[in-house]
């Protein structure tokens, strides 16, 4: 199969919402190859506890690549306990400059319960405005939905779940099988 004819992997919506002293990261379970759903129950949100400090992470992109990045993030967090921003910046620097890591195709949303960061292979460590971050195929749908709900009485988890439901109704690469991890609050 030539490189141009390979349909490519698609899928995933990951959202992070900070509200009321709590941060929630939620992700759907769909993995697609072209126009076929390969798996509907993937778990793309994880809790890490390096050095006794909880961090929640969600990933979009290649699963193997994301696990490599999560392992690297965990090592950075062990080297700098309780300093998520520093660990995220160190990971982004390595990702941008290491020839092996440069080929990894994934993005991460991470939180320690205080801050939320989006980490990319372009060397970005982005702190979202409006206390909402989203990545993946349905990320923009979930982001728009969540931002519209932020000034309501809904909790962070309720906002994340409703935003994921809206994204799954719109994006064909997102399903309603949602995994949620919360931290803080």
Q: What report would you give on this structure?
A:
The chain is of the alpha+beta class. Helices cover 31% and strands 30% of the residues. The chain contains four helices and twelve strands, in the order E-E-E-E-E-E-E-H-H-E-E-E-E-H-H-E. The protein has helices at residues 63-79, 84-97, 139-149, 156-170; strands at 9-10, 13-19, 22-27, 31-33, 36-39, 45-48, 55-61, 106-111, 116-119, 125-126, 132-136, 179-184. Helix 1 crosses helix 2 (84-97) and helix 3 (139-149) crosses helix 4. Residues 1-9 have low confidence and may be disordered.
List the helices and strands and how they pair.
Layout: E1 9-10, E2 13-19, E3 22-27, E4 31-33, E5 36-39, E6 45-48, E7 55-61, H1 63-79, H2 84-97, E8 106-111, E9 116-119, E10 125-126, E11 132-136, H3 139-149, H4 156-170, E12 179-184
Antiparallel strand pairs: 1-4, 2-3, 2-11, 3-12, 4-5, 6-7, 7-8, 8-9, 9-10
Features:
12 strands; 31% helix; single chain; alpha+beta; 185 residues; 4-stranded antiparallel sheet; disordered N terminus
């Amino acid at each position: 199969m030539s490189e141009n004819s390979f349909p490519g992997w698609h899928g995933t919506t990951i959202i992070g919402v900070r509200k009321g002293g709590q941060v929630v990261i939620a992700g759907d379970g769909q993995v697609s190859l072209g126009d076929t759903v390969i798996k509907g129950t993937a778990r793309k949100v994880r809790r890490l506890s390096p050095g006794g400090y909880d961090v929640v992470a969600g990933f979009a992109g290649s699963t193997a690549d994301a696990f490599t990045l999560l392992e690297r993030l965990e090592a950075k967090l062990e080297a700098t306990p309780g300093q998520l921003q520093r660990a995220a910046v160190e990971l982004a620097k390595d990702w941008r400059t290491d020839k092996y890591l440069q080929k990894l195709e994934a993005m991460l949303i991470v939180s320690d319960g205080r801050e939320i960061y989006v980490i990319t292979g372009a060397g970005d460590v982005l702190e979202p405005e409006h206390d909402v971050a989203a990545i993946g195929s349905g990320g923009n749908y979930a982001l728009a939905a969540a931002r519209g709900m932020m000034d309501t009485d809904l909790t962070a988890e309720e906002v994340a779940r409703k935003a994921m439901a809206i994204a799954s109704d719109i994006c064909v690469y997102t399903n309603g099988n949602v995994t949620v991890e919360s931290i803080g609050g």
